[in-house]
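INFO batch 0412 | record 1 of 1 | parsing
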Amino acid sequence: MKMRTRRALALAGSAVALSIALSGCSALNGILGGGSGDANRDEESGQVTESANIDIFALKVGDCKMESPSGLIQDADVVPCAEPHDEEVYHEITMDDGEYSEDAINTASEECIGDAYTQFVGVSYDQSTLEVYPITPTKDTWEQLDDRLVQCVIVDPAGQVEGSLQGAAR
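INFO prediction complete | emitting tokens
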């Protein structure tokens, strides 16, 4: 396995652990009446039309967002992709029903740097300068909210971008 892939998988594993530990806060926040719903979206494209703070469960493929200053994944500050942003959701994986399994989630998260990445960016992850992390279900959201969604988020380590990274080929 190439060093970049090991680094990416280690990064993905760390991100999974972080999101597993923290995104449950969002679920509990939502259950207890917190959360801020969804953003205003274009009816045809579904794209965000104005900046908003949304519940993490309202995040969709194609959404561009700001990095959370605390690193916590409880909600998301989304912006239209034409505006400067830190991250973009580019792919989703729906897990099969069954028992919650960190191993299964980690395995599914590897798809974030596989064919989905290559199709989105235009080059393989090994050839790219861009980074990825997954947003994953927690044990609580899996069991209590039937959360089966893994979202793949792409980041340019060089800083904010304007526009989508789709087809960036870098």
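INFO post-check: Helices lie at 3-31, 102-109, 115-121, 139-145.
INFO record closed
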